[in-house]
Amino acid sequence: MGDLVVDKHVQYILSVEKKKDSFESLVMEHLRMNGAYWGLTALDLMGKLGAVDRDMVVSWVLKCQHDCGGFGGNIGHDPHILYTLSAVQVLVLFDRIDVLDIDKVADYIARLQNEDGSFSGDKWGEIDTRFSYNAICCIALLHRLDKINIEKAVSFILRCKNLDGGFGCTPGGESHAGQVFCCVGALAITGSLNLIDKDFLGWWLCERQVKSGGLNGRPEKLPDVCYSWWVLSSLIMINRVQWIDRDKLKTFILECQDKENGGISDRPDDAVDVSLCV
Amino acid sequence: MDSDEEERIPFRKRKEWSDIKPVPQDDGPGPVVPIAYEEDFIEAMDYFRAIFLADERSPRSLALTSEVITMNPGNYTVWYFRRLILETLSADLHKEMSFIERIAESNSKNYQIWHHRRWAAEKLGAEVTEMELEFTEKILGLDAKNYHAWSHRQWVLQALGGWEDELQYCQQLLEDDIFNNSAWNQRYFVITRSPQLGGLQAMRDFEVDYAIEAIRVNPENESPWRYLRGLYNKGDTQSLIEDSRVSQACLDVLKNNGTCAFAWSLLLDLLCKGLKPSGGLSERVFEVAACSSSNVNLAETVCSILQRVDSMRSSYWEWRKHNLPPQIC
Prior knowledge:
Keywords (chain A): Metal-binding, Prenyltransferase, Repeat, Transferase, Zinc
Number of helices of chain B: 18
Order of helices and strands of chain A: HHHHHHHHHHHHEE
Largest interface: A-B, 47 and 54 residues
Radius of gyration of chain A: 19 Å
Largest sheet of chain B: none
Shape of chain B: elongated
Number of strands of chain A: 2
EC number (chain A): 2.5.1.60
Oligomer: heterodimer
Family (chain A): Belongs to the protein prenyltransferase subunit beta family.
Number of strands of chain B: 0
Pfam families (chain A): Prenyltrans (PF00432)
Domain Prenyltransferase alpha-alpha toroid (chain A): 5-274
Structural class of chain A: mainly alpha
């Protein structure tokens, strides 16, 4: 227990950005856009966004865009909805959305919507409620929600609701805290939270807190810091975050810090990961 | 390291690749990386970029993507290009299935692999139903909660069929681990969606007994409690409170174990929906709460007990206590 070692975490994130030659960085090359978003958001939350070269990042982001309007995970990688959202988020973070042809990006997203309201991740057609969230969040950031069929998008998400009040990645898929975040997020952005039983879902979400104070993503799974984000932000969106034990959760997260080298891991004493620093 | 890897010949020394000029990744400086495996990987990626940019859909390109994927199955662009090559060459997709299986064994949580598998299975159609069910069983044998494997399996059942033994399969997994929430979810999926079982209404009676038996074996298991509740839809609360097996199950657990939050919680829901409790049930509530029965609201008392036995969620139960529907016991 103790405090959040902010300076160490800032150093850790900046070092990840610079280590382009590490093996980890090579095999993650294709999803660098996601890493950039998570790392920069963490820096922003710690008030240290000024520590990165904003023009360099913006020009790199633009090099990842394709003619269709979508973005790849890095230069030379195919466009995908996951990286298109991250790219837009990074630009919003730097307040440089003006560099985009907004309609071009929004049209790319809108084209990924299917007849049943779901969204594909790219032209290959994989469907997942993650992509519903990506699409809705991205197109909302671009102020172009009118380009998609919101009613159908919402009805697909509601079809993924389970007997426990949670959501899965497709109709019938097991409830999972990460998918709950995506579905609740999409419903919140489209003003549709009135369509779900918030009390019932809130209880499932707070039931994710285990004895150690950490949160898991599904019943009988181990707690992991990433679910602190997925579960907590879902509870905040449905206005039920007071239902979990905050002190116990705080203790759990602080125990997952690497106090010497910076960074936060999934569980106490495991290796650190940049996405968890948020 | 096995012998295959030790004998690996770099692309620059292979005759069939001598006409290709490798293309390095251009996202910044790339100092020499000392470990041999990393050198191989960088070189293979450089050759991949070259054939990708030239859009060369040839047998050697297919072989190259196999090597790159073996080294890094997460790179989605390589998988995309591989699909284009397979389509252009009209390649034998049965061979592709064996390749995927080999990669999946050590990377079973990789999105790309599953997406690719589904693409190939979709093209091959119903003839691979059995093979796909066996494939997911193999992966679930290693990790019975693998989300990708379950998603794939649900897709196979809905798109290709093979429902016949699915309930039996769920049963077997629950016998192995009664806490497996994924298997409970699949069971619900089967009883509500299988075209052969007649739907939830037809299955309910049997399933209530099944869930109650699982609760009896271990009352601290969240999954069967939720499953039991799920057998009654929102519009069906009357059937829920009228099924005496449900309230009896709560009482049976609470007789032996006054601290089981799931039992108290279901009892609270039943009371909120209008259950008129039996004498035995009320008695047990007041006994655990250590208070006398006169002038005390039963549902409120259950909330107080829950605040104590499930102290981590005490504010939730507090909220429930203040939001009880009017005119209940």
